[in-house]
Specification:
six-stranded parallel beta sheet; 377 residues; alpha/beta; 8 strands; 54% helix; Rossmann fold; 2 domains; single chain
């Protein structure tokens, strides 16, 4: 198995980066009629920037509101619109699902794709895959593409205006990057692009984790006040670029499979991808038998940046063995990344790890509450 590393052709990040979007596209030789698939927040915060940027670059464009779900129906709907207006470039602007849908449309039409995330809420922007859900929000499948986005542009002034929960969710997604990549490396399994992991991907995945631990709390504080700071810039890069390159060229394991399992339970649908991945990581660490010191560091960090560490925090207030088994069975379905572990993974094993993770998480929350009470006294 050969080593394989992939990445977007160009990554741009910084305050008011949207004003350079058109010129960045021109530098890459991307032009012509552009279709922007945009979330409501993107339309709200980026419309003026698009007008100025595309006017300077002399790029014609149209904006199409995103329906809210990266489903097969939504992808087909936008493909038809792109064909009707003779689009030559697809631009996704918004959260992870918007970007996933934009990549799917671009692939279907064999067009260049530009991703402009308005929040650092997942590692989706840099990847060559999309996660497709049903209209009800249940995970259906991954779509894999021949190439990564041509351009990823992150305007941190816009990211700072997004709800802080989105940044926390991105940290949850990024938190699993190093642990999942390390599992894939140790198991000598293929990464998400079908190759062995390079030392570059391994280093980026590890740097992602180290950056989260060092700057996560400070970045969240900045986001809570709508400010762009050095810590916020570093966490945006960790959530978007480091995690994106780390997960794709490093690999995925149990954490993301548990996320997929959780989507099968309706009570979890209002919770974000990264939030469910964060809980899935605790499940993975328990299933792998990691030292308690490692689990405690992850619990401490997660709790400090408002990530869920128990089942009630992802909507399951009264979890039962049957529900845990339902989640686990979906998590170990054929083709799931849970099977990238260096041991045989079964549904009963994952169900037990889910319930154990919930118990450990609840205990940690209880201890934290007791410590706060003692501190106040």
């Amino acid at each position: 198995m050969h080593q394989v590393f992939c990445s977007p052709a160009r990554y741009v990040q910084g305050r008011d980066a949207t004003l350079n979007l058109g010129l960045e596209m021109v530098k890459l030789g991307i032009g012509g009629k552009s279709l922007i698939l945009a979330s409501p927040s993107a339309i709200k915060f980026l419309t003026a920037g698009w007008q100025e940027s595309f006017s300077k670059a002399e790029i014609d464009y149209s904006v199409e509101p995103f329906s809210g779900e990266c489903s097969r129906n939504e992808i087909a709907r936008v493909v038809k619109i792109a064909v009707d207006i003779k689009a030559e470039v697809i631009i996704g602007a918004g959260g992870g699902k918007v970007l996933d849908a934009a990549r799917a449309v671009a692939c279907e039409l064999q067009l260049p794709v530009v991703n402009c995330p308005t929040a650092a809420s997942s590692d989706a922007p840099c990847s060559a895959l999309s996660v497709v859900y049903s209209e009800k929000g249940e995970f259906e499948t991954y779509l894999f593409y021949k190439r990564n986005p041509d351009l990823v542009l992150v305007d941190t002034a816009v990211v700072a205006k997004a709800p802080p929960r989105l940044l926390s969710s991105g940290m949850g997604d990024a938190l699993a990057t190093w642990f999942e990549a390390k599992t894939v490396i140790d198991a000598r399994k293929a990464n998400q692009v079908g190759g062995a992991t390079t030392i570059s991907a391994q280093a980026l995945a590890k740097l992602c984790y180290e950056t989260l631990i060092a700057d996560g709390r400070a970045a969240l504080t900045a986001a809570e006040h709508g400010t762009v700071t050095a810590a916020l810039e570093r966490i945006v890069e960790a959530n978007t670029l480091l995690s994106g390159l780390g997960f794709e060229s490093g690999g995925l394991a149990i954490a993301h499979s548990v996320h997929n399992g959780l989507t099968a339970v309706p009570e979890t649908h209002s919770f974000m991808h990264g939030e469910k991945v964060a809980f899935g990581l605790i499940v993975q660490l328990i299933a792998e038998g990691k030292p308690q010191s490692v689990i405690d560091e992850v619990l401490d960090f997660s709790h400090s940046v408002n990530l869920p560490i128990s089942l009630p925090e992802v909507g399951l207030k009264h979890p039962s063995v049957d529900v845990a088994l339902q989640i686990a069975e979906r998590a170990v379905a054929e083709g799931e990344t849970a099977h990238n572990e260096p041991f045989v993974v079964t549904a009963p094993m994952i169900a037990d790890a889910i319930l154990a993770a919930d118990a450990i998480g609840r205990r940690h929350i209880s201890k934290s509450s007791e410590h706060k009470l003692v501190s106040v006294r």
